[in-house]
Amino acid sequence: MMARRTGRRPGNPNTRQAILAAARTAFAERGFDAASIRGIATAAGVDPALVHHYFGTKEELFRATMEVPIDPAQLLPGVLAGGREGVGERLVRTFLDVWDSPAGTPAVALLRSAVNNEWTARLMREFLVTQVLRRVLDHLDIDPAELPLRGSLVATQMLGLAMTRYVVRLEPVASADPETLAAAIGPTVQRYLTGDVSA
Amino acid sequence: MMARRTGRRPGNPNTRQAILAAARTAFAERGFDAASIRGIATAAGVDPALVHHYFGTKEELFRATMEVPIDPAQLLPGVLAGGREGVGERLVRTFLDVWDSPAGTPAVALLRSAVNNEWTARLMREFLVTQVLRRVLDHLDIDPAELPLRGSLVATQMLGLAMTRYVVRLEPVASADPETLAAAIGPTVQRYLTGDVSA
């Protein structure tokens, strides 16, 4: 038998599925912050230690429920490292790198599903807010009162980019190279994050 | 029997449905420009005069196939009347006026459907390009070589706004007043239409 590359065990498939189902319900109904590993374990009829053993942290469990092999915690440091200047363009470029790659296929599937399934839409909203936007905005030291509007404005542009490039496939955005799009759309995201967005 | 308010006859329901089905196929397969009333009539097994009689112009027939009671030809003059300056903000405000109104309900349904149905996605793409973006860009006297990129960049922002406000319903964009959104998002659309978008 080959040595496992990760310390995390795949575990009993039925137990895994029960935990994932309980986690989906908890994250969609209560939101990421209010959901707890303990509550999810109780709902799945298992010990909390088993949830950690199979899935790791609450963030990792959340990503597992989304079935998207993208970890914002790994990707975002590269986006944020350069500080405020140019962060919009780096965010667009990183987003396209990931969504153009094989990891993007389940992300597009998730986007399609969120459109027709309120449950998935809620999970996606929670994921966007707690795993992506919150990290970006915290790092950029933005006035907390402005966080929600700035975050959801960024979401309008990034969701629309994903829809236009991968779902509606409107040319030339559908097949433009990432640099062209980062140059055109980066300044929008930059303004939503750090510029003037008030009436 | 009440007097009809319009000169256009509702006609035989089966004939209407046959024409609409033939029109959907033609617009999705061949595109708006290449599709002809004559070809649609032939496919539906009726006289071209009957198509005009029931549905009016090719534009009107296209809108009927989309089942969306929004006529860009009526709305856009108000957006375009003020010229290039502020056109982005007026476009966002008009878009929200329509989509927030009862006429927006079928538009949101169409958006949901386009996400999971390649046929509807093609119709929506054709509608966006030939009925909305082309009119806007023609009027603003934009370099024809730049039309496709500018038009599809506008689409990224407007589709994303629609997705965020009406489908994913991410707050505060979901319930922000139109003026706030027009002020925040208008400058993006303005830059995509008339500003610098190159690398």
Structure, briefly:
The structure is a homodimer of 199-residue chains. By secondary structure, chain A is an all-alpha fold.
N- to C-terminal distance of chain A: 64 Å
Secondary-structure arrangement, i.e. CATH architecture of the largest domain in chain A: Orthogonal Bundle
Major sheet characteristics of chain A = none
Q: Over all CA atoms, what is the radius of gyration of chain A?
A: 18 Å
Tally of discrete structural domains of chain A: 2
Structural category of chain A is mainly alpha
Mean pLDDT of chain A: 86
Explained architecture:
Chains A, B: This is TetR family transcriptional regulator. Chains A, B: Keywords: DNA-binding. 2 copies of one chain form a homodimer. By secondary structure, the first copy, chain A, is mainly alpha-helical. Helices cover 70% and strands 0% of the residues of chain A. Chain A folds into 2 domains: 54 residues, Homeodomain-like (Arc Repressor Mutant, subunit A), CATH 1.10.10.60; 123 residues, Tetracycline Repressor, domain 2. Chain A contains 10 helices and no strands. The longest helix of chain A has 22 residues. Chain A starts with 12 loop residues before the first helix and ends in a 5-residue tail after the last helix. The interface between A and B is large, with 46 and 46 residues.
Keywords for this structure?
homodimer, 199 residues, 10 helices, Arc Repressor Mutant, subunit A, HTH-type_TetR-like_transc_reg (chains A, B), DNA-binding (chains A, B), Homeodomain-like_sf (chains A, B), DNA-binding transcription factor activity (chains A, B), TetR family transcriptional regulator (chains A, B), 2 domains, mainly alpha, Tetracycline Repressor, domain 2, globular
